[in-house]
Amino acid sequence: MNGSVNEKWQSANQRFLTAALAVLRVALQRHAALLNNQTGVNLEGKAEQEALEQARAAMPSPAAMEALSAKFRLSAFEKDVLLLCAGLELDATFAGLCAAAHGDSQRPYPTFSLALSAFPEAYWSAITPIAPLRRWRLLEVAPGQTLAHSALRIDERVLHYLAGVPHLDDRLAALLENAGREEALVPSHDKLAEAIAMTWSGSKSITDLPIVQLCGSESSSKRAIATAACARLGLQLKILSAQMLPLNASESESLVRLWERESALLSSALLLDCEEVDQTDHARKNAITRFLDTAFTPLLVAGRERRGNIHRQVITLDIPRPTAGEQKMLWQKTLGQAAPVLSSHVDALVSQFSLGALTIQNAFAEARTRATEQGMVNWERNEKFPELIWEACRVHARPRLEELAQRIIPSSIWEELILPEAQLQILRDTAAHVRQRAKVYESWGFIHKGSRGLGISALFAGASGTGKTMAAEVLANTLHLDLYRIDLSQVVSKYIGETEKNLRRVFDAAEEGGAILLFDEADALFGKRSEVKDSHDRYANIEISYLLQRMEAYRGLAILTTNMKQALDTAFMRRIRFIVQFPFPDAVQRSQIWRRIFPASMPTEGLDFDKLAQLNVTGGNIRNVALNAAFLAAEAGEAVSMKHILRAARSECVKMEKSLTEVEVKGWI
Length: 669
Hints:
CATH topology of the largest domain: Rossmann fold
Radius of gyration: 36 Å
Number of strands: 14
Strand order of the largest sheet: 3-5-6-7-4-8
Helix content: 40-55%
Largest sheet: 6 strands, mixed
CATH class of the largest domain: Alpha Beta
Number of helices: 30
Number of domains: 5
Strand content: 5-15%
């Protein structure tokens, strides 16, 4: 309602409630007169009844009492009992009336025995736990006396509703959040919202409403779709985190009753947010299932994966990210007047990042803030502003992946990467494929030839310390992308089906920002697929097949590293786009590594890089030796010299269980 309409209704509702209480007051006075054998008292109540009818006719829409009675299907007697309890709170004369009607000054409160005696069409079952008054907790029965003689009290939330002051129940206020205002949806999401609204509008009753399950990795889109669907049906949307559900069955039942009542009073739907539920928390999963099975209100459930074991009708919708075209539209809308100037950068953003409307708005707002901090007056024309947007998109795409993988802050550059030219060229080609994929796949239409095999994947094979991780850092630096190392020990599970779920979470989380995924020591998972001898072999092969499918569909770059290239089967190798063999560095390459390993600001003295190159170790070992030598020199208060490196080399060889030969250190000191 708008302000004036709401004020008119409030005034009319107050008049109606006052009139209804006046009619009830007459009934109490009549009963008190009969109880005390008073004669000659005219208590027909015709004037009060006429005033009530006039108040009802003046209502612009149903009064709160009438609406509540309809929502919970209260009989005339149940309505009188509830009004009696409301009268005690709203009218100071009702306490005396109750005492008089009881014939006992010590009982100035409503009881069920009083209602049975004073009101017409009374019946005992109205006070049973399954009848509306107690099932929906419209009133409370005080403990300590017989049921009929116990004091009755109206629930505070219900009292405010009857008075025309609707608000969220205090017991739910700490658990629920508002969905916010309805936002314009992209076309693909608008169709889903319309489908939900049509499905619910076609149901005959609340108990027939199917649960709508929204699955996918983009939580803000799911919320926006749910909000839009509810708005079309005139429903407010509340959100409840599954983490807030009680694990105890009795407490769960109480929450369900409170929510069902609240849903009816406020015409609300509920979105149960299961996004952050730990799949190994079985107690929480059982609590979710119990809630979904028993809460008969307009109900949606949001999660990354489909939920099973729900014993009600469920409609599941997979919520896709906005399409590339829709994302361009969102960027143009967000950029506003700056869109024409920055249009050439939008294609690059859409090519790399797969973002929803809310994330795009937040990333742009953050970039604008950074531009202001840096004093950019005409920010839309500043050549550095696209870099700020790109960085903001990277930051906003990180949160979910941060929980699943280790982010590596890349510091290596091409000049530090010592490899044969053939290997360097493959790495440059890899970077080119990532940069140009939008042009080749979309602008040139290669994607219409089939989506299989469009994922960009690379295999880095070589001994430990030969530069595989450094090469990944170089690519991340060159492409201005985040690099995440995947801990396979956390991904691979002995439980059937869990490895695929873990991999799905990683790829889904990475999809938003197109991050570079580094599966280090990948032979632990990607070894030769075994001959199927038992169920474990079969499921191990399924895990590998699933990984290959996700790699082929992943829009970013996935890098696998291995020390044992020969352990990978040929079917797997065929589906890798780039294979880079990292050789053990020869003397020339080791000399180059030594020349570049020390920072320019570090003091050195008498270093002979050609002699240091005699040490037959990898680049990773050289870095360890150089770093250890720097600490030795710093402690001694000296510049790094050959003697410090010799001592550090001996320590490294002990760690490697390798003998340091005379040939390797000949002429060092």
